[in-house]
Design brief:
The N and C termini lie far apart (69 Å). The strands form three sheets. Strands 1, 2, 3, 4 and 5 form a five-stranded mixed sheet that branches. Strands 6-7-8 form a three-stranded antiparallel sheet, with no helix packed on it. It contains seven helices and eleven strands. With 312 residues, the protein is of the alpha+beta class. Strand 7 and strand 8 form a beta hairpin. Pfam families: LPD29 (PF18847). This is J domain-containing protein.
C-alpha cells in the first residue's frame, strides 16, 4: 500500500515515513531558516500517517537505517526527538580550547542521541575524535561486509558504504563539532592555523560497532534474571587486565608463551590478537605490579618494544 499527502509521497513503510519526515524537517526547521507554519502542517500530516503505519510490518526492499529510528516513540515524541536533533547550528566558536569543546560535544551527544553510545577523545592538543559505537540502526550497506569504518567528514554524502541514517547522523555530528572550529590556514603558503582537526568514525578496530535495539517495556511483573555474583579474585583480575588478555602469538620467538595483548579486527570482522608493547620499563612495571596484586606473575621481555609474558 502506497500513501501520500501534500508533503509525503510514495510512503510504503514506517521507515520510509520517518526518512521522508527527516528530510522535510531539515528543509523547513525554523532554526534552519524554514517556515514554522509549513513545519506545523508537516507534523500534522506525519501524525496521521504515523497512526496508519506504526503497527504494520511492511519493510522496504533496501535497509536504510530508519527501521528502528526511535522505535516505540509516539508520533509527537518522534517529532520532538527530530526537532531537538536538528536544532540551531551556528558559529559557536568563542575562544574555547579543545578540552572544553570536547566536553561540549559529549554533552550535546548525550542530549541529542540519548539511545546511542559514542567515544569522544582528544588526540594530542589539536584533534578531536568522535566515534559512534552503538545505536538502534544498521550503519553499513548490506553488501559492504564491514564492522567499522573511518568517515571522511568532507565526503559523508557520497560515502557508499553508509546507510542513509548513518550519513544523516554523522553529518549532524560534523556540523555541530565544526561550529566550534575556525580555519585560517593558507595552503598556498603551507600555513596551517585551525582550532582542531576532526576525525569521525563508526566503530573501532578494537571494538566494532554494535546494533542495540531498544528494549520493549512489558506490562506486569518482569521475570528476575539470575546474575552470578562476581568474586573478589575475578574482579581483581578483570580490573588488572582492563581490555587486555593473555593469549598465544603466531610467532616462533614467543611460541608456547602467554603474551599480554588485545583483540583487534579487520574491517570485515576477522579477529587478530595483537601484543601490547612497552618502550618504557617504568610504565610496564606499573602494569606488572597491578597484575601481581591480582595473582598473575609476569615479566617484560625487553626494555625496548618489549612484550609482557606470564612468568612461571
Amino acid at each position: 500500500m502506497i500513501m501520500k499527502t501534500s508533503h509525503f509521497t510514495h510512503i510504503g513503510s514506517l521507515a520510509e515515513l520517518k526518512r521522508a519526515y527527516r528530510r522535510l524537517a531539515l528543509q523547513y526547521h525554523p532554526d534552519r531558516g524554514g517556515d514554522i507554519t509549513i513545519m506545523q502542517q508537516i507534523n500534522l500530516e506525519f501524525g496521521k500517517l504515523y497512526a496508519v503505519w506504526k503497527d504494520r510490518c511492511d519493510v522496504s526492499e533496501t535497509l536504510t537505517g530508519y527501521e528502528n529510528d526511535y522505535s516505540g516513540a509516539s508520533a509527537r515524541e518522534y517529532t520532538e526527538f527530530v526537532y531537538n536533533e536538528y536544532r540551531w547550528r551556528g558559529r559557536n566558536y568563542k575562544g574555547q580550547r579543545v578540552p572544553e569543546i570536547a566536553d561540549l560535544i559529549r554533552t550535546w551527544l548525550k542530549e541529542t542521541y540519548p539511545r546511542y553510545r559514542f567515544s569522544v577523545t582528544r588526540d594530542g592538543y589539536g584533534s578531536i575524535r568522535i566515534f559512534l559505537m552503538s545505536a538502534d540502526f544498521e550503519p553499513f550497506a548490506k553488501d559492504s561486509g564491514i564492522i567499522y569504518h573511518d568517515v571522511n567528514q568532507y565526503h559523508i554524502d557520497s560515502d557508499s558504504v553508509l546507510t542513509d541514517r548513518a550519513r544523516e547522523v554523522m553529518s549532524n555530528i560534523r556540523d555541530f563539532a565544526m561550529s566550534y572550529n575556525y580555519d585560517n590556514s593558507d595552503a598556498m603558503t603551507d600555513y596551517f592555523d585551525t582550532n582542531f582537526y576532526l576525525s569521525l568514525g563508526i566503530g573501532k578496530y578494537n571494538k566494532p560497532y554494535k546494533v542495540v535495539l531498544p528494549r520493549l517495556d512489558c506490562k506486569g511483573k518482569k521475570a528476575e534474571v539470575f546474575r552470578h555474583p562476581e568474586g573478589k579474585a575475578h574482579k581483581a583480575v578483570r580490573q588488572a587486565l582492563g581490555k587486555a588478555r593473555f593469549g598465544f602469538l603466531d610467532s616462533h620467538k614467543y611460541h608456547g608463551e602467554l603474551i599480554l595483548g588485545e583483540d583487534t579486527y579487520s574491517r570485515t570482522g576477522e579477529r587478530f590478537f595483537w601484543p601490547k608493547t612497552y618502550s618504557s620499563a617504568k610504565t610496564a612495571q606499573k602494569r606488572i605490579d597491578k597484575l601481581e596484586q591480582a595473582g598473575i606473575r609476569c615479566e617484560l621481555t625487553g626494555c625496548r618494544e618489549g612484550v609482557m609474558r606470564i612468568y612461571y
